[in-house]
Structure formats: structure tokens, C-alpha cells
Amino acid sequence: xxxxxxxxxxxxxxxxxxxxxxxxxxxxxxxxxxxxxxxxxxxxxxxxxxxxxxxxxxxxxxxxxxxxxxxxxxxxxxxxxxxxxxxxxxxxxxxxxxxxxxxxxxxxxxxxxxxxxxxxxxxxxxxxxxxxxxxxxxxxxxxxxxxxxxxxxxxxxxxxxxxxxxxxxxxxxxxxxxxxxxxxxxxxxxxxxxxxxxxxxxxxxxxxxxxxxxxxxxxxxxxxxxxxxxxxxxxxxxxxxxxxxxxxxxxxxxxxxxxxxxxxxxxxxxxxxxxxxxxxxxxxxxxxxxxxxxxxxxxxxxxxxxxxxxxxxxxxxxxxxxxxxxxxxxxxxxxxxxxxxxxxxxxxxxxxxxxxxxxxxxxxxxxxxxxxxxxxxxxxxxxxxxxxxxxxxxxxxxxxxxxxxxxxxxxxxxxxxxxxxxxxxxxxxxxxxxxxxxxxxxxxxxxxxxxxxxxxxxxxxxxxxxxxxxxxxxxxxxxxxxxxxxxxxxxxxxxxxxxxxxxxxxxxxxxxxxxxxxxxxxxxxxxxxxxxxxxxxxxxxxxxxxxxxxxxxxxxxxxxxxxxxxxxxxxxxxxxxxxxxxxxxxxxxxxxxxxxxxxxxxxxxxxxxxxxxxxxxxxxxxxxxxxxxxxxxxxxxxxxxxxxxxxxxxxxxxxxxxxxxxxxxxxxxxxxxxxxxxxxxxxxxxxxxxxxxxxxxxxxxxxxxxxxxxxxxxxxxxxxxxxxxxxxxxxxxxxxxxxxxxxxxxxxxxxxxxxxxxxxxxxxxxxxxxxxxxxxxxxxxxxxxxxxxxxxxxxxxxxxxxxxxxxxxxxxxxxxxxxxxxxxxxxxxxxxxxxxxxxxxxxxxxxxxxxxxxxxxxxxxxxxxxxxxxxxxxxxxxxxxxxxxx
Length: 886
Prior knowledge:
The chain is mainly alpha-helical. It is built from 45 helices and 14 strands. The strands form 7 sheets. The protein has a two-stranded antiparallel sheet. A hairpin with a 5-residue loop joins strand 1 and strand 2. Helix 18 (491-506) runs antiparallel to helix 19 (512-535). It is extended and about 105 Å long. 26% of the residues are buried.
């Protein structure tokens, strides 16, 4: 491979490979949609062919998805002609940090929307350089006349004014003269040139590499190979300065490469004589020689009897953790009995296992051993006693013994298969190895004959499944048929369950012949089972209510047809009667959840009635909640619009219930209701009445109130619903009463609803017409509730910025009684909120907004405000009172 020389920024030489041949990138045929973008936003189709002409979509491809709440069109196919490139927000254009952050979020959302359907290029590095923070002098430095003594224009960080000027130039993409000078200069010092802090040279870490093609989207290897070659050519041509290969780090930076050590022959451990261990040394060391007779003869005899060492099993091995290697060697070679009987010597309690782990060092030598073997039972036992990698195990299974594949020999001999299954109980290691042997047999192309044994012996089949699950997924628990269910009616059901479980487990391991055979069996027994259940509704009823194990087998079977029959149109009733956590989770965590959700979507009005919710249990409520969330996830991820007008009556029922578990369903059911793709006035009137009905019946109980408000928040996305809810005085009074709540969770949700509903001008005027709203706004200034104060200030500023004379006048009238306290807060903000920059900024924005109010709209409010601002008097006790309120 040819290499080219490059130079680092430290003037060190390194080499980087060059492609032997670079192919030209052809033009796209105009049929394929854009899939990839390079660093210059040049689109390419999935074969990495350049798309130079505007892409005109045909009618067969849906170009846009629609957000049901915002009606925003989200492109599903990238078209460069539709993308309006907007510049990154400039901080100089915003008054506050929060406004700037919001602008960045809008920019990010826009970019994500229009680039969501293409693969963007990838940065060559995850790190990039940013300018040093500006130089801000401390108070001491500002008073020091020699603060510029060490100034160097090419080393010092920029002063704040120059820093903002640099950011402005970069964001606006201005033409920058390297020898140009920044505006603010240091007295009696050289000017600060642009080139000291800005460079026009492209940085290697900012290079964007086109995304590597994914093999999964190509029909064959040839397509992928051609695409990959074009991608490699395009990528290599895009590299201005390539990265340094890791194998040259040692030469350039003196960094050693950590290489994996190669294991040599195992060292032979020589037995060393153990040191003499005296379990009584702690006591005998304190005894003088002439006092040894303090231990009586009778005590010595008793100790001798107790210390007689019991015989030990030589085949027991130990695994030690947290002890020194010398101590471990002594115990392994000399100390079995001592370790078992003399407890004081056990530094840590050992973990026992029955046999050492044996490893096949050279699989090729072992394959020769297999090919020369004459006793398959001894060979299988030896294989199950060794730890071997899956790839090596596949090689062993492919070994020919007397002209027959080893896997084929095992697969057609049921005695050998049963012998393998019986070995799983020898040790925990054997169970794992047996499972791996079975997987390797299923992978082998010559093992089709195992299907004969599976089909004829269900006990063997079930034991096989249990062994396979040991390594494929230990969480799987294979269900068994009890003696009570061994009737002929259940035989096909149990076979279908076993075959479907086998298919799920060995899909990624199984050879094609076995895979097709298992799928055929699944179809056969699925049809037989569904036909039997359809023709025997009484039997289905018995399964639902009296045979939980059989019911679980059918739900785990994976057949949508069987799920539909077993659930039935009124499934919530029998599930509520037989409700258990196991039953509900069995449905939720497999494909039966889809059928249950679709039936619920269709029959919700008939399922959730007033009579049903009076007897409905908490577990059933949890199940309904999970189904609702499942449908929402489908609708949002796939942009599906459900027709859920029948949910309107359901939301009315659950939203006004006095049962906490029922009311918790209101929010997800409301979301489903609004997933209906209807913008006609009839539907809007329908949901407006529903939101008003829930608002009129808002609960006094805090927990029920929170659940209802969550639902009403969803309704507030519709402007007519906002107006309808604003006219429910009971709802507004309840929400306003919680705005100064000390419990932040209640206060936060109440403020969210209040600000959402008042985003509509008509609704805002309606809310401001209630006298208690003005009392609340005025009382916030003395409440001591910092969160409520922040939200009140934001709400007022936003309302004033609407430039609506009626709204501005109404707000000024409501806040007039509190103007003195507001001015006091402003004047004492650096004391009261010395540790809260955010509140100080909001107060300053609030005061600024008052100063720009139209006097004709504000009446006496601005004049009264100015009088208070001119006064130097702060009410005694006000500052102390606010700071000590909770």
C-alpha cells in the first residue's frame, strides 16, 4: 500500500495510506431518494451517487408526516430545495440568556426536522477548539496600574468587548482581514490583530466524513461493494489533513502500545512446605514457660477430641477471592482438612465448586481425537467437561467420523441426545456447555433428523427447550402441562407453544432447513389451535377463568389469531375478574398486547362504562394505562392518526371519577382522543365540551386534582378548549388557589396550566375578569414563594408583550395595589436574591417592561410606579418579612 507524508502542527512527520484507486462518483438516476450528505451538504442516494438536480418525488412515496397537535409538516424525504438554511442565533440579538437559549432550541428543532430523513456526515473527532474565555479584571486588578505589564497581544485572552466582536464576526460569516485590529486596545501596547485569535485555515478535527454505508439496506453484496468503494473514494478525497495512525503514536509522542500478551505453556507449580500454623499463638505467646500448667489435663484431652480432623473429599475444589496467592497455594496443596475444620484460618469464606474448569487448548488436536473416537458417549462426556468457544464447537460438530458428520450422528440418535440432556445436572458448567452443544447441533446443516424426535416426544421437546434457554435467554421459563391438562384437546395447543418458543430462541442460530421445518410446524398447529378455539367458545371461557397455565401458554404462543379469540370483545371484564399481576404482565410483554390494544381502541366506549369503573380493580386500571401508552407510542413513532371519537364519553367518565386509580387514566385517554385526525368544528366542539365538563367537576382532593390537570393540560393545546375552560370559574378558582402552593409539584403543574390556558387572548381576558386572580398576582410579591414569583413575573411580561390594550390595561389595574411592593423588590433585589441571578434578571426585565408601557393603556399604573421609583423609602420590615417567609 502506498503512503503519503504529512506534517503535524509540531512539525513532526507522519505517513497516511493512500487509496490504490479512486473511482469517480457518478450522477444519480433521479429515481432514488437522498440518503447521505457529505460535509458540504451535497446529497447522495443510497448507492453514493451524486444528486445534482432537484429531487421531484413521485406519488408512491409519502413525502411528509403531520404532527397532529401542531399540524407541522415533517419531511420524510430530504429535498435540498425545501431546506431554508437559517444561521445560528447571534447572542448580540437577544436581551437575556433565556431568550438566547430559546432561539438555539428553535434553531436545533428546525435543523433536526429538515435533516431527519438523511444520514448526516460524522465529525472526524469528538473534540474541537473554542476560544479562551474573555479576560475580566477583578476589583483588585482594576485598581492596579500595572495590570497590563504582562500583556501580549498574541497570548492574552480577549477583553469582553473584543470577544463579543469576534463572536459576532464568526456567526455572521463576515470577511475577516487577518491584519485587522479589534476595537478595544490596551493603552501603550501593540494593537490586537484578528489573526492572533481567528484563523481561516481549516482544522482537521472539524472535518466531516460521509456516513459509512449500512449493509442492511442493500439487496446483495455487489450493490454494497460498489457503494462502499464510492464512499471510500469520496471520504478519502474529503480529507484535507488526515488523522495520525495509532501505530505511529510511539514514534511521535513516545506513547507505548499495549499489546495483548500471548499465553505460553502453563507453569508447573511446585509444592512448598507450609509454614507451621498455631491456632493458639495469640494465647500461648502470652504464657511464661513456668505457667504452662495453667491448662489442665482434662482440658487438653477435650481439645484433642474436638480437633480430630474429619476425612475430606479429595475431589472438592475451591475458588478464593481477596486472599494472597501464597495462602491459596498452601490451602490447595496442603490445607484441605485444615481449611475445612480449623475455622480461624479462613480469612474469607470460600466459594465451593465441584470441578476445575478445563479448557481445550488446541481445537485442531481435539478434532483429531473426535475423528478417531469409537465411543460417542465418552466423547460427549469429555466434550461437556471442557470449556470451548462457540466457533471451535462448530468446527468439532462438523468433524467427520467414519464418513458421517458428528452433528448428524448425534441428531439422529435419540439416546445420544437424551444422554446430552441428562448431563446438564452434573455441574453448573455442564448445563451451560450442554446448551452450547445443542445450539451448535441446530446450526449444523446435517442435523435435520432432530425434528423427528421433537415431533414424537413432547417430554423430550420440553427438556430440550429448557436446556436451550440456559444460554440463549436464562430469563425464559418454559411452561409445562400439568396432569390435569394432558387431555387430547390440549395436545395441539402445547405443541404449538413449544414450537413457537423454539422458533423464538434459535432463529439466529438455526440452519435454513430446520428453520423452514419449525415455521411449518408453527403454522400447522397455530391453525389447528385457532380452529378448535373458534369452534368451542365454552372451552375458551374455561381457559380464561379456570386454566391459568394453559391461558399463559396461549398468550405466549405468538399467534395474533389465537390472541384475538382468547381475548374477545369484552376482555376487560374477564381480566378484571381474574386479575393478577402475572396475567397482565403476560399480555403486556408479548404480541398479545397489540391485539388487546386494537380491541380496546375499537370498543373503549362499551368496555369502560360507569358500572365497570365502580368495580374495576387497580391492576386492571394499570393494564388500561399500559394499553393507552402503547397506542400513544405507536401513534407518535409511526405518525398514525387514530379515529378515537368514541373516547370522548370514556374521558368524561374517568375524568370525573372519585377513584384515584381511575382518574389516573384521564391524561393518556385524552392524548388518544386528540390523536384523532379531525379539524372540523363538530369535533372541536366535542372536545371543548369534554374539557369544560372535567373543569366544572374539578376535584378538591389534591391527588385527583393533579391527574385532572394533566388531562386539561393536553386539552389546552386547542384554543377553543382554552376559551371553554377559562369560563369555568370553579376550575380557575381552584387552579389560582394552588399557584402559591408550597408543594412545588402542585404549584408547578398549576402554573403550567395557567400559562397554557392564558396563551389565548380571549381566554386571558376571561381569566383576568375574576377578582381573585388580581388578589393572587398581588399577593405573590409578599408570599416568600420564589418559584411563584418567577412564574408571575414571566406571565406578566409575556402578557404585556402581546401589545393588546385590553390585556395591558386589565393587568395594570390588577397590579396597581402591589406596585409599592414590586418597586421594593426591585430596589432590594441584590440583597433578597443575592444568590439567585435568574430572579434578579426577571425583576429587571419586569421593570423594563413597565417603563415601555403605553401610558394610554396603563392609566395611573406607570405614574404611580414612577413615584415609587423616585422615592428612597422602603417600608420597614418588608425586606425582613420576605426573606423569612417560607
